[in-house]
Amino acid sequence: MENKTTAKKAEEVVETVKTEAKKAQKAVKETAKKAETAVKETAKKAETAAMKAVAPKESVYVQFAGVEADVKALADAAKADFKANNKNAKVTDLKLYVKPEERTAYYVVNEKFEGKVNY
Hints:
single chain; 119 residues; alpha+beta; 3-stranded antiparallel β-sheet; two-stranded antiparallel sheet
């Protein structure tokens, strides 16, 4: 009788150990998954930061007859002119045509709105 009780207690201990081992395995898997996600996010942030650090600053100028025009400034002026005349419209596409002999930049916004800015 005493051996049966001891064997039963041993079986209970074995089951408890198995249950705890399964819980520990599950916790390890969850922790590994969280760590993997954190590593991926950190790598993505590092890659984005590296891309920003490497991206050169670009400037484009048009020079003609002693006059210089910054194309970025002309594009910004064209967008501002468009928004002043079209309050609720959004700029999704901008084509800029610089005519230095006229000191004017003509623009087409969203392939249907036209305008011009002088410089």
